[in-house]
TrEMBL record:
<dbReference type="InterPro" id="IPR016450">
    <property type="entry name" value="UCP005522"/>
</dbReference>
<feature type="domain" description="Circularly permuted ATP-grasp type 2">
    <location>
        <begin position="78"/>
        <end position="453"/>
    </location>
</feature>
<feature type="region of interest" description="Disordered">
    <location>
        <begin position="463"/>
        <end position="493"/>
    </location>
</feature>
<protein>
    <recommendedName>
        <fullName>Circularly permuted ATP-grasp type 2 domain-containing protein</fullName>
    </recommendedName>
</protein>
<dbReference type="Pfam" id="PF14403">
    <property type="entry name" value="CP_ATPgrasp_2"/>
</dbReference>
<dbReference type="InterPro" id="IPR025841">
    <property type="entry name" value="CP_ATPgrasp_2"/>
</dbReference>
<dbReference type="InterPro" id="IPR051680">
    <property type="entry name" value="ATP-dep_Glu-Cys_Ligase-2"/>
</dbReference>
Length: 493
């Protein structure tokens, strides 16, 4: 299987075989004294624990029955993307997210793409993530996915592919920001010698995007971050982003709806809320409409939302567009709504709902990656070449029982990047999650969150499955000819 390494032109790595945009870093790394990287890693772990950068693993329980708190492993070696590659990727991301937002508006209004037969009608209207309550509801600026996390992989041919679209409550951006801060703290000399595009302004971009979506153009809108609470696996990120934006972090019990307006309880009385950046799934937002047992949302919230008196980001019902069974149709959405050819490729996908595809999947389970259409976090997935006979038999039975609940894709040879592991520096598989912000315009902080599969040979990068993260550098000009803007700003503080 063809392999692609981000830093080296060949594996095992050879001196002088570094890719052009990695040459300066490779020269620096070769001169790092033995033992210094391990000391820096230990320093990083101490700081991350002090700051409280953890996530909960629901499968692992502590004595109280709650999910155990862990650090997401942090790798010291950055993933570097040259400017020309990033510019092309950025164009593709803007194109893709624009088409997805057009699709979401369409399926909740005129349904042109369904009537044209481009996307099967039953696939959407019978989808568990389709919310009939949103039919005919006009959302601010016709934007449904204000914060999108698009997972991108690089295959052995060196080309980038979109692996999946995360449009509901994508997480991970706090680790992108904290990884950059950590790298600048540990290796300031690198930032003085590399022109690395900044990411520290992401919270400002996020706040600007949220304010763009204010109902009836309120000049000073009140924005809040709605969290399920401290036991959620991404609670650190909820609190972090609220603090960075300078807005209130609230739970459902802090909100009250009166006369179709949403208010926040404060020590000075009720204060109207205009925009809710929700980190709560649809089902838990309003017990009067969705799950009546939910204590995570506020009764009457959907009434206020449908009346146009509050904006919920991301919009209710966005999940229908990031369903894995809808993913294969995104290139056709780009053509249908924008009249353009997709810049970013999809991974070839077989759909269990199609009889011919199902037959192929069942005949090639040992070669394919099979995913539940509603699965997430690396769960509900079979990696055929690495699976046991028992796992393959289990998925065969599941596919035969509910074929529409699964898709399958070829096992891509994900690109590798040098990673600092117990035995030194070794290649490990990675992906990339850029974060796309859609308001009055589309904004993207350069790079994104690089996730790395720390287990040798593993293709699963999810933190819940033992994966870690890396800082992602987009070189503003390369070969690098000056300090990064973030480093310059730091020196002026």
């Amino acid at each position: 299987m063809q392999k692609f390494d981000e830093m080296y032109r060949s594996l095992p790595p050879k001196s002088g075989e570094e890719r052009e945009h990695y040459k300066a870093y490779a020269k620096w790394l070769a001169n790092v004294p033995e033992g210094q990287m391990q000391l820096r890693l230990e320093e990083a772990e101490v700081i991350f624990r002090q700051v409280g950068i953890t996530f909960a693993v629901y499968g692992d329980k502590d004595e109280s029955g709650a999910g155990t708190e862990r650090l997401i492993p942090f790798d010291l070696i950055p993933r570097i993307i040259p400017a020309h590659e990033w510019r092309r990727m950025e164009q593709g991301l803007v194109q893709r997210v624009t088409a997805l937002n057009r699709f979401l508006h369409d399926v909740y209004h005129d349904q042109d793409i369904l009537r044209a037969g481009v996307v099967p009608k039953d696939l959407i209207l019978s989808n568990a993530q389709y919310r009939p309550e949103m039919q005919g509801v006009d959302v601010a600026g016709q934007v449904y996915s204000h914060i999108s996390g698009i997972d991108i992989v690089r295959a052995g041919d060196g080309d980038y592919y979109v692996l999946e679209d995360n449009l509901r409550v994508p997480s991970g951006v706090s680790y992108m920001l904290e990884n950059r801060k950590m790298m600048m703290r540990l290796f300031p000399d690198l930032f003085s010698s590399h022109a690395i595009a900044p990411v520290a302004h992401y919270p400002d971009l996020l706040l600007e995007t949220l304010r763009d979506c204010t109902p009836d153009a309120i000049p000073e809108p009140t924005v809040v971050v709605l969290t399920p609470g401290m036991y959620n696996s991404a609670y650190f990120e909820h609190a972090f982003l609220a603090q960075q934006m300078g807005v209130e972090l609230v739970q459902g019990q802090d909100l009250v709806v009166q006369d179709k307006f949403v208010y926040m309880r404060t020590t000075r009385g009720l204060q109207r809320v205009d925009v809710i950046y929700r980190r709560v799934d649809d089902d838990f937002l309003d017990p009067a409409v969705f799950r009546p047992d939910s204590a995570l949302g506020a009764a009457g919230l959907m009434q206020a939302y449908c009346a146009g008196n509050v904006t919920i980001c991301n919009a209710v019902g966005t999940g229908v567009a990031d369903d894995k069974s809808v993913y294969p149709y995104v290139p056709e959405m780009v053509r249908f709504y924008l009249g353009e050819e997709p810049i970013l490729k999809n991974v070839p996908t077989y759909m269990g709902r199609k009889p011919d595809d199902l037959a192929y999947i069942l005949d090639h389970l040992e070669e394919l990656v099979v995913k539940e259409v509603h699965g997430a976090g690396g769960y509900g997935m079979l990696i055929g070449p690495q699976a046991s006979k028992e796992e393959i038999a289990h998925f065969r039975a599941a596919l035969q029982a509910k074929p529409a609940g699964y898709i399958a894709q070829p096992t891509l040879s994900l690109s590798t990047c040098p990673t600092f592991v117990e035995n030194g520096v070794a290649p490990r598989h990675i992906d990339l999650r850029p974060f796309v912000l859609s308001g009055k315009k589309v904004r993207i902080a350069p790079g994104g969150l690089t996730r790395v599969a720390l287990k040798e040979g593993s293709l699963v990068v999810n933190s819940s499955q033992g994966g870690g993260t890396k800082d992602t550098w987009v070189l503003e000009d390369w070969p690098s000819t000056g300090p990064s803007k973030e480093w310059q700003d730091l020196q002026q503080q």
